[in-house]
Backbone:
């Protein structure tokens, strides 16, 4: 998913990713009826894995198809995705998810809190509508993604890629405030999501952020693909900061494509269109040791599959989702 912008109705024109063979109407995968895992990790998927980055885009599958296919692939948990893609009327969304056996784990927001108190009111208005819908759907988390320092499609530099000391203070302080207020008003736990082309991406920035924030107010959504994109080691982070891991996004990067886009300075959007995020288990990091490290924490965790695929052939996501769910079962979740 990408940060909302005034241009979201005009998607990039990069060539779509290679599609998988067309699969007809969703059916339960052969291993979906296997015995429940004793793992405390609950696996789900998200609109992102169906190529959905925007509330409304003709390149994206209709929300009804996403719900049909995510349930057919064997997932029981979903995220809301960009606000407005799924119905925002809680009664409608509750009916549509319930009849497919789906539940909501989290909503997602983009924020630019490093910009200081002047952006608080605008940020809160955006957060509140997302949090209210997530709460109404019984979710327990709100995924918070920092804003991009360069345009994720054109590569235009919007801000300096490294924060000043003052911006770090604003980012950490206002994120703590956000965490407390979201919890007090909506009963949700915020989980901050490091992301490519943002000020929170790799080991240095992520550990600095964790060291500077209150664990009671702020947890981490570790996205294995984005962390690898910036050179981070997910297993090492889980082992060192296990008490701060509140949520997982399961994702892999293609190391060959990653090397190319890093060398060329390619923005995140075009990198995704080139296939930098790939289908497990073809990429890195290996998910088996990540999941093993997460299980060793012995806490309840959501692990939500997110394979960035925008733009993609509408018939590509479902076969990938079937294979990915079966692969994760082979990993014990």
Residues:
């Amino acid at each position: 998913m990408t940060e909302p912008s005034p241009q979201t109705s005009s998607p990039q024109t990069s060539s779509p990713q290679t599609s998988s063979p067309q699969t007809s109407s969703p059916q339960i995968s052969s291993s979906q009826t296997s015995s429940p895992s004793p793992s405390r990790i609950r696996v789900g998927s998200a609109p992102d894995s169906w190529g959905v980055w925007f509330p409304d885009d003709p390149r994206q599958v209709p929300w009804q198809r996403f719900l049909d296919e995510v349930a057919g692939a064997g997932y029981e948990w979903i995220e809301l995705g960009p606000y407005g893609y799924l119905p925002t009327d809680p009664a409608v969304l509750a009916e549509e998810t319930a009849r497919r056996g789906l539940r909501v784990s989290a909503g997602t927001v983009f924020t630019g809190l490093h910009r200081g108190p002047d952006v608080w009111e605008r940020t809160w208005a955006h957060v509140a509508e997302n949090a209210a819908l997530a709460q109404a759907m019984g979710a327990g988390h709100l995924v918070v993604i920092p804003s991009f320092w360069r345009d994720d499609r054109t590569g235009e530099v919007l801000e300096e890629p490294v924060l000043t000391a003052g911006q770090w203070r604003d980012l950490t302080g206002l994120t703590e405030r956000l965490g407390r207020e979201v919890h007090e008003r909506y009963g949700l736990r915020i989980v901050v999501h490091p992301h490519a082309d943002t000020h929170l991406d790799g080991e240095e920035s992520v550990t600095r952020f964790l060291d500077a924030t209150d664990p009671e107010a702020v947890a981490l959504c570790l996205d294995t693909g984005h962390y690898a994109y910036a050179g981070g080691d997910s297993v090492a982070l889980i082992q060192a900061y296990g008490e701060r891991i509140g949520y997982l996004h399961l994702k892999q990067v293609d190391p060959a494509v990653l090397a190319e886009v890093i060398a060329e300075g390619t923005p995140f959007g075009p990198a995704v269109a080139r296939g930098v995020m790939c289908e497990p288990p073809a990429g890195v990091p290996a998910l088996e040791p990540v999941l093993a490290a997460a299980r060793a924490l012995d806490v309840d965790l959501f692990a939500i599959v997110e394979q960035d695929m925008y733009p993609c052939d509408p018939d590509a996501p479902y076969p990938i989702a079937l294979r990915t769910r079966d692969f994760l079962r082979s990993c014990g979740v």
